[in-house]
Design a protein that fits this description.
Length: 338
């Protein structure tokens, strides 16, 4: 079903000293001001078409990207050096719609239009197993901070999986609208889902019960993200808007208006203050506290003239110092704070 073509020596060398990752990175504390005007560090090429998904490893030493359309390919990169480390060919029989690395850094998980969730051992990149149960394309994945519970959402609802025992846990909802995006709070207790009707739902994963549902947007909800403290939820939509919500009260705090086309993805810096949004008109950086637009990274900016195609996915590294974006042109851009 799946073939893997890797640069195995490079992967092994890359992970030879994982215990010293923090020292090697020489990271500093996240600073929202430093990302107001980021520097374009690398533009990576390798995918044959559009890229729909990407994710950093916890130690920021690995970036994984998933191909769209019928490519079904996953590529692995060193984001700081801008070098490719390996490739998983035919990871899916179609597009790779969502991809993540578990917080413990042990497992790479991907899903796609072939209705499957695939698990890989990240150290060896050996295929582990598939989770099968969805009956339609799977569009989004979320994982708990303790790396024990995986949540998957697709056109046929939401399912929960036990990653430790590698087995199904529960089906949260079936065919309750088409789930396009998921987000899990840092404590693993609250799940947010966004559907094709613009509705956002909050779920209590201790009881698997619905907490609240509200119409957040007039079109498909394309992105959801919790702030690190779990008190704020950000939603994005094809209606071009981004909205900031108080999780406890359900009240809207801000509406961020500035994109002139579909907002396809959002990511919150680990500092909890800076939001990045990716759309058909490029990337915008926002101050989550005030709702102020801090910067626009698009083809009109001299320092970022590589951005000429719509953005499909965007992600911050865990240390908050790197931002990666990818889209329809098959390019992966990596930004560094300064």
């Amino acid at each position: 079903m799946t073939s893997v073509a890797l640069s195995i020596p490079m992967i092994q060398e890359f992970y030879s000293y994982p215990a010293h990752a923090a020292d090697e990175l020489k990271t500093k504390s996240p600073d929202s001001k430093s990302f107001a005007n980021p520097q374009l560090l690398h533009t990576l090429l390798g995918h044959t078409g559009a890229i729909k998904s990407l994710a950093f490893s916890p130690n920021t030493k690995l970036l994984v990207t998933g191909g769209a359309e019928n490519e079904g390919m996953i590529r692995l990169w060193n984001p700081q050096k801008g070098k490719i480390l390996g490739t998983i060919n035919r990871a899916h029989q179609g597009s790779v719609d969502s991809i993540l690395i578990t917080p413990n850094g042990e497992t790479l998980i991907s899903c796609g239009s072939d209705y499957r969730i695939n698990l890989w051992n990240l150290k060896s990149l050996e295929f582990s197993r598939s989770f099968v149960g969805h009956t339609s394309p799977i569009l989004s994945l979320a994982v708990s901070a303790d790396s024990k519970v995986l949540v998957s959402g697709g056109l046929d609802g939401i399912r929960l999986w036990d990653l430790k025992r590698q087995m199904p846990l529960a089906t949260l909802v079936r065919f309750d609208n088409a789930i396009h995006t998921l987000a899990l709070s840092s404590d693993g207790q609250t799940l947010a889902s966004g559907d094709n009707k613009g509705v956002v739902k909050l779920w209590d994963l201790r009881s698997n019960k619905l907490i609240r549902a509200f119409v957040a947007h007039s079109q498909i909800v394309t992105g959801l993200a919790f702030t690190p403290n779990g008190e704020t939820l950000v939603s994005a939509s094809r209606d071009t808007s981004i909205k900031v919500w108080n999780v406890n009260s359900g009240e809207r705090i801000h509406t961020l208006s500035g994109h002139n086309n579909w907002v396809n993805a959002i990511a919150i810096n680990p500092d909890g203050k800076t939001l990045a949004s990716g759309a058909k008109d490029g990337i915008k950086l926002w101050d989550l506290t005030t709702g102020e637009l801090k910067n626009t990274l698009n083809s009109q900016s001299k320092s970022v003239n590589a951005l000429v195609q719509p953005i499909e996915d965007i992600a911050f590294s865990r240390d908050g110092q790197f931002l990666s974006s990818a889209g329809f042109d098959g390019k992966i851009n990596i930004w560094r704070s300064r």
